[in-house]
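ENCODED BACKBONE
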Amino acid sequence: MAETVALDPVDLHILRLLQNDARTTYRDLATQVGVAPSTCLDRVTRLRRSGVILGHQLRLDPAKLGRGLEALLSVQVRPHRRDLVVPFVERVRALPESLSLFHLTGPEDFLVHVAVAGPADLQRLVLDEFTARREVARVETRLIFQQWACGPLLPPDAAGDRPQDSASESW
Protein backbone atom coordinates (compact mmCIF):
# COMPACT_ATOMS: atom_id res chain seq x y z
CA MET A 1 0.00 0.00 0.00
CA ALA A 2 1.26 3.48 -0.84
CA GLU A 3 2.56 5.73 1.88
CA THR A 4 0.56 8.81 2.68
CA VAL A 5 2.18 12.19 2.13
CA ALA A 6 2.05 14.90 4.79
CA LEU A 7 0.05 17.84 3.44
CA ASP A 8 -0.29 21.22 5.08
CA PRO A 9 -3.23 23.62 4.61
CA VAL A 10 -1.53 25.37 1.67
CA ASP A 11 -1.01 22.04 -0.13
CA LEU A 12 -4.65 21.08 0.47
CA HIS A 13 -5.86 24.44 -0.83
CA ILE A 14 -3.73 24.04 -3.99
CA LEU A 15 -5.07 20.52 -4.53
CA ARG A 16 -8.69 21.64 -4.07
CA LEU A 17 -8.28 24.33 -6.69
CA LEU A 18 -6.42 22.12 -9.17
CA GLN A 19 -8.84 19.19 -8.86
CA ASN A 20 -11.64 21.50 -9.95
CA ASP A 21 -9.66 23.17 -12.75
CA ALA A 22 -6.30 21.63 -13.63
CA ARG A 23 -5.73 24.39 -16.21
CA THR A 24 -5.41 27.10 -13.55
CA THR A 25 -2.20 29.06 -14.13
CA TYR A 26 0.43 29.17 -11.40
CA ARG A 27 -0.05 32.92 -11.13
CA ASP A 28 -3.83 32.55 -10.56
CA LEU A 29 -3.29 29.60 -8.25
CA ALA A 30 -0.74 31.55 -6.18
CA THR A 31 -3.10 34.52 -5.92
CA GLN A 32 -6.00 32.36 -4.75
CA VAL A 33 -3.85 30.50 -2.21
CA GLY A 34 -2.01 33.59 -1.01
CA VAL A 35 1.57 32.58 -1.78
CA ALA A 36 4.22 33.75 -4.26
CA PRO A 37 4.05 32.15 -7.75
CA SER A 38 7.51 30.59 -7.24
CA THR A 39 6.32 29.04 -3.95
CA CYS A 40 3.22 27.73 -5.69
CA LEU A 41 5.31 26.20 -8.50
CA ASP A 42 7.65 24.57 -5.95
CA ARG A 43 4.71 23.09 -4.04
CA VAL A 44 2.99 21.73 -7.17
CA THR A 45 6.31 20.25 -8.33
CA ARG A 46 6.74 18.56 -4.92
CA LEU A 47 3.16 17.25 -5.06
CA ARG A 48 3.87 15.75 -8.50
CA ARG A 49 7.17 14.19 -7.45
CA SER A 50 5.64 12.68 -4.32
CA GLY A 51 2.87 11.09 -6.41
CA VAL A 52 -0.02 13.06 -4.90
CA ILE A 53 -0.71 14.63 -8.31
CA LEU A 54 -0.80 11.82 -10.84
CA GLY A 55 -1.17 13.87 -13.99
CA HIS A 56 -3.66 15.77 -16.08
CA GLN A 57 -6.15 14.01 -18.29
CA LEU A 58 -8.32 15.08 -21.15
CA ARG A 59 -11.77 13.48 -20.85
CA LEU A 60 -13.48 12.54 -24.10
CA ASP A 61 -17.14 11.71 -24.68
CA PRO A 62 -17.16 8.16 -26.13
CA ALA A 63 -20.62 8.66 -27.69
CA LYS A 64 -19.42 11.69 -29.67
CA LEU A 65 -16.56 9.57 -30.96
CA GLY A 66 -18.90 6.87 -32.26
CA ARG A 67 -18.73 4.65 -29.18
CA GLY A 68 -22.15 5.19 -27.66
CA LEU A 69 -22.49 1.79 -25.97
CA GLU A 70 -20.61 1.37 -22.71
CA ALA A 71 -20.42 -1.81 -20.66
CA LEU A 72 -18.75 -3.31 -17.62
CA LEU A 73 -17.17 -6.71 -18.17
CA SER A 74 -16.62 -8.89 -15.09
CA VAL A 75 -13.80 -11.28 -15.94
CA GLN A 76 -12.69 -14.38 -14.09
CA VAL A 77 -9.15 -15.55 -14.84
CA ARG A 78 -8.20 -19.14 -14.06
CA PRO A 79 -5.79 -20.04 -12.80
CA HIS A 80 -5.23 -16.70 -11.12
CA ARG A 81 -1.44 -16.61 -11.42
CA ARG A 82 0.92 -13.72 -12.09
CA ASP A 83 2.27 -15.31 -15.29
CA LEU A 84 -1.28 -15.21 -16.73
CA VAL A 85 -2.53 -12.02 -15.07
CA VAL A 86 0.30 -9.74 -16.28
CA PRO A 87 -0.15 -10.46 -20.02
CA PHE A 88 -3.94 -10.26 -19.61
CA VAL A 89 -3.67 -6.81 -18.01
CA GLU A 90 -1.24 -5.62 -20.71
CA ARG A 91 -3.58 -6.81 -23.48
CA VAL A 92 -6.72 -5.26 -21.97
CA ARG A 93 -4.95 -1.94 -21.38
CA ALA A 94 -3.86 -1.91 -25.05
CA LEU A 95 -7.41 -2.35 -26.37
CA PRO A 96 -8.78 0.94 -27.71
CA GLU A 97 -12.21 0.02 -26.33
CA SER A 98 -10.92 -0.19 -22.73
CA LEU A 99 -11.62 2.88 -20.61
CA SER A 100 -10.53 1.50 -17.22
CA LEU A 101 -9.47 -1.77 -15.65
CA PHE A 102 -9.77 -2.85 -12.02
CA HIS A 103 -8.17 -5.89 -10.34
CA LEU A 104 -10.65 -7.11 -7.71
CA THR A 105 -11.18 -9.50 -4.86
CA GLY A 106 -14.20 -11.79 -4.91
CA PRO A 107 -15.57 -14.18 -7.53
CA GLU A 108 -14.52 -11.97 -10.46
CA ASP A 109 -10.89 -11.01 -10.83
CA PHE A 110 -11.23 -7.99 -13.10
CA LEU A 111 -13.78 -5.33 -13.98
CA VAL A 112 -13.26 -3.70 -17.37
CA HIS A 113 -15.11 -0.55 -18.45
CA VAL A 114 -15.38 -0.52 -22.26
CA ALA A 115 -16.94 1.72 -24.92
CA VAL A 116 -17.96 0.37 -28.33
CA ALA A 117 -20.05 1.48 -31.30
CA GLY A 118 -22.88 -0.97 -30.71
CA PRO A 119 -23.99 -4.49 -29.74
CA ALA A 120 -22.15 -6.21 -32.60
CA ASP A 121 -18.88 -4.54 -31.59
CA LEU A 122 -19.44 -5.51 -27.96
CA GLN A 123 -20.06 -9.11 -28.99
CA ARG A 124 -16.90 -9.12 -31.14
CA LEU A 125 -14.87 -7.63 -28.29
CA VAL A 126 -16.10 -10.18 -25.74
CA LEU A 127 -15.65 -13.17 -28.05
CA ASP A 128 -12.39 -12.20 -29.77
CA GLU A 129 -10.53 -10.34 -27.04
CA PHE A 130 -11.76 -11.92 -23.81
CA THR A 131 -13.34 -15.38 -24.01
CA ALA A 132 -10.88 -16.44 -26.73
CA ARG A 133 -8.01 -16.06 -24.24
CA ARG A 134 -7.02 -19.34 -22.59
CA GLU A 135 -6.80 -17.84 -19.10
CA VAL A 136 -10.30 -16.31 -19.19
CA ALA A 137 -12.73 -18.68 -17.49
CA ARG A 138 -15.81 -16.45 -17.51
CA VAL A 139 -17.06 -13.05 -18.65
CA GLU A 140 -20.26 -11.33 -17.54
CA THR A 141 -21.39 -8.25 -19.43
CA ARG A 142 -23.44 -5.41 -17.97
CA LEU A 143 -24.59 -2.52 -20.12
CA ILE A 144 -24.31 0.97 -18.72
CA PHE A 145 -27.48 2.98 -19.20
CA GLN A 146 -26.16 6.18 -17.66
CA GLN A 147 -23.26 7.33 -15.54
CA TRP A 148 -22.41 10.34 -13.44
CA ALA A 149 -19.06 11.75 -12.47
CA CYS A 150 -18.72 11.97 -8.72
CA GLY A 151 -17.33 14.81 -6.71
CA PRO A 152 -13.72 15.66 -6.18
CA LEU A 153 -11.57 13.65 -3.81
CA LEU A 154 -11.07 16.56 -1.44
CA PRO A 155 -14.16 18.24 -0.06
CA PRO A 156 -14.45 21.98 -0.54
CA ASP A 157 -12.70 23.88 2.27
CA ALA A 158 -12.85 21.62 5.28
CA ALA A 159 -12.31 23.55 8.50
CA GLY A 160 -8.68 24.37 9.07
CA ASP A 161 -7.47 23.52 5.56
CA ARG A 162 -7.30 27.05 4.25
CA PRO A 163 -4.29 29.15 5.21
CA GLN A 164 -5.23 31.89 7.64
CA ASP A 165 -4.80 35.50 6.61
CA SER A 166 -3.11 37.18 9.57
CA ALA A 167 -5.30 40.26 9.06
CA SER A 168 -8.47 38.21 9.55
CA GLU A 169 -7.46 36.48 12.78
CA SER A 170 -9.84 37.12 15.60
CA TRP A 171 -8.49 37.68 19.10
